[in-house]
Design goal:
Keywords: Transcription, Transcription regulation. The protein has 2 domains: 180 residues, Rossmann fold (3-Layer(aba) Sandwich); 108 residues, Orthogonal Bundle (Arc Repressor Mutant, subunit A), CATH 1.10.10. Helix 8 runs parallel beside helix 11. With 323 residues, it is an alpha/beta fold. The strands form 3 sheets. A 6-stranded mixed beta sheet has the order 2-1-5-6-10-9, with helices on both faces. Strands 3-4 form a two-stranded antiparallel ribbon. A two-stranded parallel sheet has the order 7-8.
């Protein structure tokens, strides 16, 4: 079981908490063993939106595989003074030193800074608070225009809704982008990734649409991309004609089903090659008859790396982890 412990401070933003909590709750609904717990300095927590919350004051026993996440809070103009009290900062540090992951949403980064966890690390926060974070914590490398940043098991995200992106990223790292895509689809959110990395998985990058028929076909291709797949079988799975599927798939993703399958094969082959697998072996492992097609696709990806933002080749960003 993986615990996700939310450390709640007074006047926290509801969406900073609810967004990531929903991601991990949906992951649990899909059969993944996540359990959310909520701790605070006292049982009654006041939120910025006026909805009172109840939390536990006793910390659970944490394992290295667990996550502690600090949602952000509202302040009149800036992030305000230190928010962690008692042994809360020491708890964050101890969990990280034991191999655990510690994260924040929005102004929650100031809590990590208070604990000393940002020193010498890259991080981010809400765009209106970046200057203050850099001023308060000069040993931190505050990155701008990032949805989230991962550095040595310290994960920080930008404002409000970016906590959803961070949580999806963490799920993708642990369980694969297909699982994260299912969660994003269930939550009806755009499956964005951080601009801090080059590319995210095609399983996520081409899921930002609402076509159920196309999602069903993508689910099938995701699970069997290394196998020969006939367009007629994919159309039957979607309950539409081959022509209709091709049109809807292109409208939703910018690709044909075959090109989508090829993108998945290429990503998997690139991963194998990076791990030391010879090109010929990687090509066969992902379903190519030989390495010629793989080499052509790799050459095409290199050429498209200069594509304008927003094109199917350049959309998205890569998926890091609880690292």
């Amino acid at each position: 079981m993986t615990r996700v412990v939310f450390l709640l401070v007074q006047r926290l933003h509801l969406l900073d908490l609810a967004g990531p909590a929903q991601v991990f709750s949906t992951a649990a609904d899909l059969g993944l063993d996540y359990r959310a717990e909520y701790v605070a300095d006292r049982e009654d927590v006041t939120t910025a939106q006026g909805l009172p919350l109840r939390a536990q004051t006793a910390w659970p026993d944490l394992d290295p595989g667990d996550l502690v996440l600090v949602p952000g809070w509202r302040s009149p103009k800036t992030a305000g003074g230190p928010r962690l009290i008692g042994d809360q900062a020491a708890r964050l540090v101890a969990h990280h030193e034991q191999g655990g992951t510690v994260g924040s949403v929005c102004s929650g980064a100031f809590a990590l800074g208070q604990a000393g966890l940002l020193d010498g690390r890259r991080c981010t926060t809400h765009h209106e608070l970046q200057d203050e974070l850099a001023q308060r914590h000069p040993r931190a490398a505050v990155l701008r225009d990032r949805l989230y940043v991962v550095d040595d098991r310290v994960v920080t995200s930008a404002g409000i809704a970016s906590g959803i992106d961070l949580a999806l990223h963490l799920v993708a790292v642990r369980h694969g982008p297909a699982v994260a895509a299912r969660i994003a689809r269930s939550m009806v959110v755009y499956a964005r990734r951080s601009g801090d990395a080059a590319q995210d998985s095609a399983m996520l990058r081409h899921r930002s649409h609402l076509s159920d028929a196309v999602h069903r076909v993508q689910d099938l291709i995701d699970a069997r991309f290394a196998e020969p797949l006939r367009l007629a079988d994919l159309a039957a799975a979607a309950g539409v004609s081959e022509r209709t599927l091709t049109r809807r798939f292109a409208d939703a993703t910018g690709l044909t089903p075959l090109r989508y399958q090829s993108a998945l094969r290429l990503e998997r082959a690139e991963h194998l090659i990076a791990q030391g697998t010879p090109v010929e072996s990687a090509a066969r492992a992902v379903g190519f008859v030989d390495a010629r097609m793989l080499r052509r696709l790799r050459a095409g990806r290199a050429w498209h790396s200069g594509s304008a933002p927003g094109t199917p080749q350049s959309r998205g960003a890569a998926a890091p982890s609880f690292e």
